Amino acid sequence: MKGFQDLTVYKEAFRLAMQIFELSKEFPKEEKYSLTDQIRRSSRSVCSNIAEAFRKRQYPKQFVNKLSDSDAESSETLVWLDFALSCKYISTEVHKELVKKNSEIGKMLGAMIKYPDKFIIKKNAK
Questions:
Q1: How many domains are there within the chain?
Q2: What is the dihedral of CA 73, 78, 82, 88, to 10 degrees?
Q3: Ordered mean pLDDT values, 10 residues apiece, the chain (126 residues)
Q4: HSE-up of residue 54 (Cα within 13 Å, Cβ side)
Protein backbone atom coordinates (compact mmCIF):
# COMPACT_ATOMS: atom_id res chain seq x y z
CA MET A 1 0.00 0.00 0.00
CA LYS A 2 1.59 3.23 -1.18
CA GLY A 3 -0.69 5.93 0.13
CA PHE A 4 -4.20 6.80 1.19
CA GLN A 5 -5.16 7.35 -2.47
CA ASP A 6 -4.74 3.60 -2.97
CA LEU A 7 -7.43 2.74 -0.41
CA THR A 8 -10.71 1.64 -1.97
CA VAL A 9 -12.64 3.56 0.68
CA TYR A 10 -10.79 6.77 -0.23
CA LYS A 11 -11.41 6.26 -3.96
CA GLU A 12 -15.13 5.64 -3.38
CA ALA A 13 -15.47 8.57 -0.98
CA PHE A 14 -13.69 10.87 -3.43
CA ARG A 15 -15.92 9.68 -6.27
CA LEU A 16 -19.03 10.34 -4.16
CA ALA A 17 -17.80 13.79 -3.10
CA MET A 18 -17.21 14.71 -6.75
CA GLN A 19 -20.64 13.40 -7.74
CA ILE A 20 -22.21 15.50 -4.97
CA PHE A 21 -20.19 18.51 -6.11
CA GLU A 22 -21.49 18.18 -9.66
CA LEU A 23 -25.10 17.71 -8.52
CA SER A 24 -24.90 20.62 -6.09
CA LYS A 25 -24.02 22.98 -8.95
CA GLU A 26 -27.71 22.76 -9.81
CA PHE A 27 -28.94 23.74 -6.33
CA PRO A 28 -30.63 27.16 -6.12
CA LYS A 29 -28.37 30.19 -5.64
CA GLU A 30 -29.98 30.91 -2.25
CA GLU A 31 -28.54 27.60 -0.99
CA LYS A 32 -24.95 28.61 -1.83
CA TYR A 33 -23.96 29.39 1.77
CA SER A 34 -26.11 26.73 3.41
CA LEU A 35 -27.02 23.37 1.91
CA THR A 36 -24.60 23.56 -1.04
CA ASP A 37 -21.68 24.54 1.18
CA GLN A 38 -22.56 22.02 3.91
CA ILE A 39 -22.99 18.98 1.67
CA ARG A 40 -19.80 19.74 -0.22
CA ARG A 41 -17.85 20.28 3.00
CA SER A 42 -19.06 17.12 4.75
CA SER A 43 -18.58 14.86 1.71
CA ARG A 44 -15.05 16.20 1.20
CA SER A 45 -14.29 15.81 4.91
CA VAL A 46 -14.87 12.07 4.59
CA CYS A 47 -11.87 11.97 2.24
CA SER A 48 -9.67 14.33 4.21
CA ASN A 49 -10.22 12.41 7.44
CA ILE A 50 -9.30 9.15 5.70
CA ALA A 51 -6.06 10.80 4.55
CA GLU A 52 -5.34 12.07 8.07
CA ALA A 53 -6.08 8.66 9.55
CA PHE A 54 -3.70 7.03 7.10
CA ARG A 55 -0.88 9.31 8.28
CA LYS A 56 -1.60 8.34 11.90
CA ARG A 57 -1.37 4.59 11.38
CA GLN A 58 1.52 4.31 13.83
CA TYR A 59 -0.85 5.50 16.58
CA PRO A 60 -3.76 3.01 16.69
CA LYS A 61 -6.09 5.12 18.84
CA GLN A 62 -5.57 8.24 16.74
CA PHE A 63 -6.00 6.20 13.56
CA VAL A 64 -9.36 4.88 14.75
CA ASN A 65 -10.36 8.34 16.00
CA LYS A 66 -9.78 9.94 12.59
CA LEU A 67 -11.67 7.10 10.89
CA SER A 68 -14.50 7.72 13.34
CA ASP A 69 -14.45 11.41 12.34
CA SER A 70 -14.67 10.32 8.70
CA ASP A 71 -17.64 8.09 9.50
CA ALA A 72 -19.34 10.98 11.32
CA GLU A 73 -18.86 13.23 8.28
CA SER A 74 -20.36 10.48 6.15
CA SER A 75 -23.42 10.49 8.42
CA GLU A 76 -23.65 14.27 8.14
CA THR A 77 -23.55 13.97 4.35
CA LEU A 78 -26.53 11.63 4.58
CA VAL A 79 -28.50 14.30 6.46
CA TRP A 80 -27.77 16.86 3.73
CA LEU A 81 -28.78 14.35 1.06
CA ASP A 82 -32.09 13.94 2.88
CA PHE A 83 -32.56 17.72 2.89
CA ALA A 84 -31.72 17.89 -0.81
CA LEU A 85 -34.39 15.27 -1.49
CA SER A 86 -37.00 16.96 0.70
CA CYS A 87 -36.31 20.31 -0.96
CA LYS A 88 -36.71 18.57 -4.34
CA TYR A 89 -33.18 19.47 -5.47
CA ILE A 90 -32.49 15.81 -6.29
CA SER A 91 -34.77 13.00 -7.41
CA THR A 92 -35.69 9.96 -5.34
CA GLU A 93 -33.61 7.81 -7.68
CA VAL A 94 -30.52 9.99 -7.31
CA HIS A 95 -31.03 10.10 -3.55
CA LYS A 96 -31.22 6.30 -3.36
CA GLU A 97 -28.06 5.93 -5.45
CA LEU A 98 -26.09 8.41 -3.34
CA VAL A 99 -27.36 6.94 -0.06
CA LYS A 100 -26.33 3.48 -1.24
CA LYS A 101 -22.82 4.67 -2.11
CA ASN A 102 -22.59 6.52 1.20
CA SER A 103 -23.67 3.37 3.05
CA GLU A 104 -21.00 1.31 1.28
CA ILE A 105 -18.36 3.84 2.33
CA GLY A 106 -19.69 3.69 5.89
CA LYS A 107 -19.38 -0.10 5.89
CA MET A 108 -15.77 0.11 4.71
CA LEU A 109 -14.97 2.68 7.39
CA GLY A 110 -16.70 0.50 9.98
CA ALA A 111 -14.57 -2.47 9.00
CA MET A 112 -11.40 -0.38 9.24
CA ILE A 113 -12.45 0.84 12.68
CA LYS A 114 -13.28 -2.69 13.83
CA TYR A 115 -10.09 -4.23 12.40
CA PRO A 116 -7.45 -1.48 12.49
CA ASP A 117 -4.56 -3.96 12.74
CA LYS A 118 -4.78 -4.52 8.98
CA PHE A 119 -3.66 -0.90 8.50
CA ILE A 120 -1.57 -0.05 11.57
CA ILE A 121 2.16 0.39 11.11
CA LYS A 122 3.84 -2.10 13.43
CA LYS A 123 6.62 -0.58 15.54
CA ASN A 124 9.01 -3.40 14.63
CA ALA A 125 8.25 -3.11 10.91
CA LYS A 126 11.03 -1.60 8.80
A1: 1
A2: 90
A3: 91 98 96 95 98 95 97 98 97 98 98 94 68
A4: 16
